[in-house]
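In response to the reviewer comment on reproducibility (Comment 2.3), we provide here a single inverse folding case reported in full, input and output, so that an independent group could reproduce the run without further information from us. The structure tokens appear first.
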């Protein structure tokens, strides 16, 4: 009977004791008040509180939190209204200051972000705002971290997520970007045209230099060939005279050779013939030969032009031959004519 009377009291005592046991998860902290006054901050682990006189507040997260605030209208230094939304990364490093330092820390941080953003962007022009996100982020992070220290908040990073200029400004920027791209295209085309002209001029210069060098080498080769041919002709003549001298020919043979030469001279085309002083003696001694060559006979002078010797066609010449090649072929024919005449 007594046990049943004590059972309700035991249940009440168990509930009171169990309510005094608190387990704080990892990454969280709780503030404890005793009789309405701040008493302690509990971190991760098992904790006990005094019944009735101690009160435990809500858990405060110590993990890094991401605060994505709504876009804010901001006026730049050149009086352009743009819309900027930012993201703030923060952590609570002092749970006591976070709970007792400000009534609503998130609302305070949002308003503080908006005011500092207007202050920083208001000192920058539109172009600088669009290209200077890093500058805005660093200034915002420094200003917010300093202002939120009394609230137990550590601002670790601030990122400008989006910058939205007015529609008319976007159209102007689009036209400006298109004009800049067209300008770059024109500059690139001009540079390419200039480079092609320079390359073509360098190629023409090189071709002319090579042509001049080829013509010079051809002239040198022609001169050397002509000199060599003249040298060979005179050498052949000298060797022939030397052979005649070594053969010990008599006067009769020499006279016969002279008459043969006269036959060539008296081909009916010469108007004047110079004869040696002893030709009469030669003719008298060699009557039969003089009759053969026709000396003393009246022969009508043939005044028709003598046909030039036909040269074989050079197989190297064709309709695509260059002037230098044609000139070289003409020089070769001239050398051959000179050799023939000397013969």
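Designed residues, in position order:
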């Amino acid at each position: 009977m007594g046990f049943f009377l004590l059972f309700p009291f035991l249940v009440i005592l168990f509930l009171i004791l169990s309510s005094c046991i608190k387990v704080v998860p990892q990454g969280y902290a709780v503030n404890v008040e005793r009789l309405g006054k701040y008493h302690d901050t509990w971190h991760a682990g098992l904790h006990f509180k005094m019944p009735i006189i101690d009160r435990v507040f809500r858990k405060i997260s110590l993990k890094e939190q991401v605060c994505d605030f709504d876009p804010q209208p901001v006026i730049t230094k050149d009086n352009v209204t743009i819309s900027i939304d930012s993201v703030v990364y923060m952590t609570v490093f002092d749970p006591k200051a976070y709970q007792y330092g400000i009534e609503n820390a998130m609302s305070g941080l949002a308003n503080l972000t908006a005011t500092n953003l207007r202050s920083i962007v208001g000192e920058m022009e539109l172009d600088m705002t669009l290209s200077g996100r890093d500058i805005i982020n660093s200034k915002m992070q420094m200003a917010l971290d300093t202002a939120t220290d009394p609230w137990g908040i550590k601002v670790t990073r601030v990122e400008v997520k989006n910058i939205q200029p007015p529609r008319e400004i976007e159209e102007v920027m689009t036209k400006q970007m298109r004009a800049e791209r067209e300008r770059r295209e024109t500059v690139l085309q001009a540079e390419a045209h200039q480079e092609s002209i320079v390359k073509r001029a360098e190629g023409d210069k090189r071709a002319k230099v090579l042509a001049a060098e080829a013509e010079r080498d051809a002239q040198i080769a022609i001169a050397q060939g002509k000199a060599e041919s003249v040298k060979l002709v005179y050498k052949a003549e000298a060797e022939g005279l030397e052979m005649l001298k070594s053969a010990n020919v008599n006067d009769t043979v020499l006279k016969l050779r002279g008459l043969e030469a006269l036959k060539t001279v008296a081909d009916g085309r010469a108007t004047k013939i110079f004869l040696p002083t002893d030709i009469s003696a030669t003719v008298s001694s060699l009557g039969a030969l003089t009759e053969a060559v026709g000396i003393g006979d009246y022969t009508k002078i043939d005044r028709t032009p003598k046909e030039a010797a036909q040269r074989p066609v050079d197989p190297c010449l064709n309709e695509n031959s260059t002037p230098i090649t044609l000139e070289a072929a003409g020089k070769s024919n001239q050398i051959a004519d000179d050799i023939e005449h000397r013969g």
